[in-house]
Amino acid sequence: MNRELAAQSIGELAPKLRDKQVSPVELTQAVLANIDAYNGEINAFIRVQKEQALESARQAEQEIQSGNYRGFLHGIPMALKDILYFKDEPATMGSKIHEEFIADFDATVVSKLKLSGVTFHGKLNMHEYAWGATTTNPHYGACKNPWDLSKIPGGSSGGSGAAVAANMTIASLGTDTGGSIRIPASSCGIIGLKPTHGRISKYGCFPLSWSLDHIGPMTKTVFDAALLLEVLGGYDPKDPTSVDRPTQNYSGGLNEDVKGLVIGIEESYFFKNVDTRVNEAVQNALRQLEKLGARIEPVRIPSLAQAEFAELVTITTEASAIHHDNLVKQPEKFGEDVRFLLEVGELMSGVDYVQSQQIRRKLDLEFAAAFEKVDVLISPTLPFLSPPIGDSIVDINGQALSFLDEVIRFTGPGNLTGLPALSIPCGVRDGMPVGLQIMGPAFQEEKVLNVAYALEKLELMKGQKADLTVIR
Questions:
Q1: What pLDDT, on a 0 to 100 scale, did the predictor assign at position 463?
Q2: Known catalytic membership, residue 81
Q3: What mean pLDDT do residues 54-61 have?
Q4: What is the pLDDT of residues 105-141, one digit of tens each?
Q5: What pLDDT digit, counting tens, does each position of 180-198 carry?
Q6: Cα-flanking dihedrals φ and ψ of residue 9, to 5°?
Q7: In the predicted model, is pLDDT for residue 457 greater than 70?
Q8: Which of 156, 160, 356, 379 is labelled catalytic?
Q9: Which residues are CB-contacts of 208 (< 8 A; sequence separation ≥ 6)?
Q10: Of 23, 81, 95, 201, catalytic
């Protein structure tokens, strides 16, 4: 068996599957072999569905052999975050309360992937109820970062980030309410795209915060993220937040030409108090884009100074409303960190919530004004390198700061505004990947993807990946 197959991207594998050079069964076996080799240490999976996956792969093989090729995702193995519903299958949400919950319908994104011929092979570990950024789950165990098993993979979609980085899935989906796609993407050295709010349906995804939640792809390449956006995007009447805006051929339109592109930099917020190693990697990426003909333009978004307040009030209040009954009736079934955050949400006032929504409106207007002058905004994804498992404090240039406050500082504004944002690795420092965030105007994911594609072509990672040979 060629386990190296599992290290390839959708873009590399799809033509081989289509042309019958690679069997879907062979590819699924390679992915499952990596799970056997690495998941015992990494703990990215809540559930591995080996026999189901092999049966699905055999069906895909028969369909392709008979000339019924469905497209780029046909026969591609994918494991998804265990917060997305599959009909007649468990969805734990990483919790004890829902450990025996069985969904009676497919999430819209699951239905679309099934129609595309994806082979599903497992449900991925996550922070309990997606309410946290470490994926240190008290019920299913801590997920570990493939780059360094002592470090967190980020969260809440930590299992997705770790599984993609360790070649235990070809691609995955995450959910993002304060950064939960982009944070693990940055921490694990992969691509994580949070599309515009309303671009991808959330029907069949257990909510954390109705007005902040997003679903998006987590992949090995920008092409793969663009491809999944094409498949998953589109209006869904079952989701009241879905927006009827046409999608594009994002993967076919990728263009690495950034000549004349105007990149906005908001230094007073997005480059304030950043680990020097992270800053150096991001600044290097910006210099490389300038060499390709892009122009850097400073911008000011004054209401960003209040963004953390607005994000935390909105997410804690809405999450506590969702979990209120269980918090009252069975608080002992929540992990300590999640229970604490839900209790904090119960203390927020109506005044706090209304003020936070007013800040969101100001941010919408200020970001819109900024995008009249620039094409995209670039920043670090995280202001620090991935910290050790269990640490509640992060060190930024010798300053001890709260992990919870710092971890969503740069990602949260994308949720408050609903604007598309992508994290792409832009280098490695002290053995850990550094993520760069690209934000764009609403429903203009193509701009974000094209800048990411140009950065990917620069090969800033220089082939560096998680060293899986040290995992036993």
A1: 84
A2: yes
A3: 98
A4: 999 999 999 999 999 999 999 999 999 999 999 999 9
A5: 999 999 999 999 999 999 9
A6: -90, 170
A7: yes
A8: 156
A9: 129, 130, 131, 156, 175, 177, 315, 318, 319, 322
A10: 81
Q: Is 150 tagged catalytic?
A: no
Q: Which domains does the chain have, with CATH numbers?
A: 3-470 (3.90.1300.10)
Question: Maximum Cα–Cα distance for the chain, whole Å?
Answer: 62
Does the active-site annotation cover 157? Answer: no
Catalytic residue among 111, 116, 157, 180: 180
Please count the residues of the chain.
Answer: 472
- Over residues 65-116, the pLDDT tens digits come to 999 999 999 999 999 999 999 999 999 999 999 999 999 999 999 999 999 9
